[in-house]
Request: fold
Amino acid sequence: MVDRRHLLALIPVPFLVLAQAELLASVLSGGTGILLLCLVIGARVLVWWVHREWAHRAAERTRARLREAFLRSPGTKAGEVATLITRGVHDVTPYVIGYLPQQVLAVAVPLAVVIRLAFADLTAALTILVTLPLIPIFGVLVGAHTRARTARQWDALATLGGHFLDVVKGIGTLRAFGRAEAQSTTVRTLAARHLTETMSALRVAFLSAFVLELVATMSVAVVAVPIGLRLLDGGVPLQTALLVLFLAPEAFLPLRAAGAQYHASAQGREVLAKVPAHQETTGQAPPDLAQAEIVLDGVSVRSLKNFSLRIRPGDRIALVGPSGAGKSTILGLLLGFVRPDHGRVLVGGVDLREIDHGQWLAALSWVPQRPTLVPANLSSGEQQRVALANALDRRQAGLFLLDEPTAHLDAETESLVLEATREFTRGRTAVIVAHRPALLGEVDRVVEV
Amino acid sequence: MKLAIFIGTLAELAGVGLTATATWLIMRAAEHPPMQALTVAIVAVRTLALAKGALRYLERLSSHKAVLSEAVELRGRVYDDLAHRRHVPSGTALTRIVTNVDQHLDTRLRATLPWITAALVGAVVTAASGFSLPLLAGLLVNLALLPWLAVRRPRDLTPLRARLTEQTTELLHSKEELIAYGLFDDKLRTATETAKELSRSERTRDLTPLAIAVQFGAALLMLAQHEPAWLVMAAVATFEITVPLAALSRPVPEPTDEPEPAHEPETLELTGRTAIVGPSGSGKTTLLNALARKLEPSRGALADAHVFHTTVRTNVLLAKPGATQEELDRAAGIAELDLDWDRVVGERGEEISGGQRQRLVLARSVLADPEVLLLDEPTEGLDPEQADRVLGKVLDNCQGAALVVTHREEQLALFDHVRHRGPIGHEHVGRVG
Reply:
């Protein structure tokens, strides 16, 4: 799911870090190498440029894959997916651009530094080798302590954060009831609670960053002071002392940055954890609907409990029942958008799950309850008409599904629907969610849900 | 905010000071001075190392607290402004208003604050260097030129963003229809292209490599000028703070201004019960909304019915906060609302069915008992029998005038007047019963 190609551009980084410290120490101690230093710095800038460029591309590829995965995942709530594909997908960017590269550098650079220092000054190398593991150890300890809290907080914060949007979106209703003024205090109270909750979460969350920072700065002091004293005694040459001084922070820097990125990418990782398992739906070709019988066999899902229905080829069935009984769910089951919790949907004896969804849908013609596949500035009646025209365009369809067509139609559109239904269902299997008696005359069988 | 800036500047100065003092210590030690000459530097190195971590922790907390406190005030102010506007903005504009508030706060924390801190540290170090020219020039580039290049807008990305939102929204809300009609893959490809174009435009603003080039370029120049090693290293450390500023972005607030709705010259006699009927698209809802605006706020305009993400009880109580349980139960009885009072309805009522949501809104308007009851297709999503029965009970209960948009001819007998909305110019008011 996550594109990692940009990490390849990081390969030269540890070598360039070593070379830069080496040359800088040489130049400052009165030696040569300033031209070479310019070259190394130039190379470092170039490598960084290439890496950033690749990283942004990798992030975009990752975002595209995530958007697709979330959009394709069946049965997720529209509201949740909307949040995931807008804000959620965006949150993954710091993970790809920041966290992943820092994770690589946090291993490669300290390793290179310690190896180099072992040849220059064993004491300094050992000091770093001992203090370096403290960062991940403290990080894990503090992280483990905060993880559960952060997860809980994230939910609480989402609710509190969502409150403002909810109230603002409902301002028309609040004003209509004369409650707008009263909510003014609530908005401030909840924002203040959001502040308190967030601060208590941050006090703990920032502790790990504090520990990382402290270990890193302290180790510089721990390395610099003894090497300075040994230099004073003439124990080490100046160039080595400078090299140790410059390399010591380089060993801690990427680890510290990785720690910071770990927090910046927390939301991105939460989003990645929600990626649905990929499911390839290349099943078998659907049976010919002119001959195949469709059976709902003891299906339970949402409000439907152990529901069974046998639809013979050419059957024209109307579904009736109170609102919320599950009429639209039955159409969802037939379309394959709703999967039964229990029971099966069989087409010519084959479970609908085994049938290729794309080919199955191509064999259907469907008018949804609230058609949306038309410009939204049309009125609901006009939308219904366009959706109907779309459905009627499918001459090859063997099964016609119509959902509550007359629920909010004017008389003219309604007679159009009636006429079209009569015409189109001739010789076809049809399942209609009907409200009006008029349509009931067009079917062979009425099923109470 | 000032406290956060102060602590942040101290923290960064401690870091720069640590690098400078440690380098000075090594360079001085190489001259083999007496031990006492190094004592102060040794103490300083240890103190600064401790101070930096602690100050950074405090700075993080104080900056977040400052911004979140600002959020309390800003959200309150934005809300109050909305509560007093003459016209309620559209749903899109309202969402944008909320997004703009969030973005403003985010910018304060991630752009404004680091920039001010970096500028202050830069000023202190430049002064300490005796105004070294490469340092000053480099800082000007990294503090002013690069951030300016990064946040300046050579191209307005709002239309591109809007296009992406529109395409994703369509993919999301019409997903099943798109899949059913084999259009999903094409639409997804188009949206991916838009996203790619958008991220390409955003990517050009990441000037981090340039900032790094300036950082070391200035250091090299200082080396060439034989500046002392501690100063060169202090400069490198100072530039380190300025590097992230080259990748700053400044989100442009999304436009929230809307033309005021046209004044409707129509006058309706608001007595008795009036049904508004007419073909799709003849402006029935528009008429209702215009009336709702005119009546606002006290007389009860119920055309825009938002269901809040809270319990059924809170949603209904909105109409009359002091209502007793009996009053609530009576309203629920009239609207045939059969939901548990403590059930949470989900965002925009997504966790209850369309019919239940509709009956909740009806129960609320029954409890409100306004002077003028305005209802837009109040029984949509209910089965016909229940629809007619519930509307009849709601109208019987209504003390004042009622104006209802409906499609069901069977319901017209419940009204005193029927107002037919035809194409413009073909209106008349008929009387039934």
About this structure: The mean pLDDT of chain A is 84. Chain A is about 65% helix and 10% strand. Residues 294-448 of chain A form a domain with the Rossmann fold fold (CATH 3.40.50.300).
